[in-house]
Design goal:
The protein has about 140 residues and is an all-alpha fold. It has 4 helices and no strands. It has one domain. The N and C termini lie far apart (about 75 Å). Keywords: Membrane, Transmembrane, Transmembrane helix.
Length: about 140
């Protein structure tokens, strides 16, 4: 049975910060798969939900102390003995981890870069040092 619904849509060039991960889904693992994200008021949920559509529900919380809030939410979920699959993500922590990875990767890259020059001989390092001194001298 096909269903149709005419809706007015507005396409925007933004990605909302709270895209919900699809739990246990292989939809995005398939080659050339696409994700079409529809944002609508929660009151219209029953008008967009179809039997063959996978719907994931979630929400975003803004907090001045994200780590503390995440810990408190985790405790509430455990105390309520919720057995359903869920993801509780601390976006601030994820951003901090990515910043740290970029920093470490950059430092490691510089070390490897210098190590490669050192292994290939002191002549390359000597020429490189002369060029740097030359550039600085004539500024």
């Amino acid at each position: 049975m096909k269903q149709r619904r005419n809706v007015s849509v507005k396409f925007v060039n933004t990605v909302p910060p709270d895209i919900i991960p699809i739990l246990g889904s292989s939809v995005l693992k398939k080659k050339n798969s696409l994700l079409f994200l529809v944002m609508a008021p929660y009151s219209l949920e029953d008008k967009f939900e179809t039997p063959d559509t996978q719907v994931t529900k979630g929400f975003t919380v803004r907090s001045k102390h994200p780590t503390q809030s995440t810990d408190e939410m985790k405790t509430m979920i455990q105390d309520a003995r919720i057995a359903a699959s869920y993801n509780l993500l601390n976006f601030s922590e994820i951003l901090d981890q990515n910043r740290n990875m970029i920093f470490i990767g950059y430092k490691k890259f510089n070390f490897i870069f210098l190590l490669v020059f050192y292994i290939y001989g002191s002549i390359i390092l000597f020429i490189l040092k002369i060029n740097i001194i030359y550039c600085v001298f004539y500024k």
